[in-house]
Amino acid sequence: MAVPDTLIRDDDWRDQAACVGLDPEMFFPLAGTREEEEALATCHRCPVTDQCGRWADQIGATHGVWAGQVRGHEFPPMGRPRRCGWCLHEFLPYRPNQRYCTVQHRVAAERARARKDVTA
Ligand code: SF4
Ligand SMILES: [Zn+2]
Question: H or E stretch including 66?
Fold first, then answer.
């Protein structure tokens, strides 16, 4: 069976990300909000900020909280991009509660969460 290339990228570091399993919306906060503070605090205890910052540069992320830094400014509540809870890529949701850019990434995140639950 062919493996989708989204699943064979070198993204092991995401397993260690402090934001795995958190609501990715939290990382696209409005400026100056409590959510923004919480996102920054999460990054500050994250062990993979270097990888995260490099990834954000690589994908040209212009908005959101990445590696403990805020990029860009707030979006109007409607139509703002979100961050995929797995690949952290910005995407435009087509459903109100969509958290992942693709089904593959939803499944990958669910597996990672399940692994964490088992080892916790
Ligand atoms: S540094 Fe990146 S990977 Fe770590 S918590 Fe912040 S956004 Fe998530
Ligand atoms: Zn994704």
Answer: strand 64-66
Spatial distance between the Cα atoms of 5 and 19, rounded to a whole number of angstroms:
23
Ligand 1 nearest atom to the CA of residue 47, by list position? 4
Torsion of CA 110, 114, 115, 119, to 10 degrees: 150
- What is the CA 111 to chain-centroid distance, rounded? 16
| Unique residue bearing structure tokens 């493996």 | 3
Whole-structure pTM value: 0.59
Q: pLDDT digits over 74-114, tens only?
A: 454 446 788 888 998 888 776 667 888 887 888 899 889 88
Tell me: pLDDT of 36 over 90.
no
Quote the ligand 1 centre to 1 CA distance (angstroms): 32
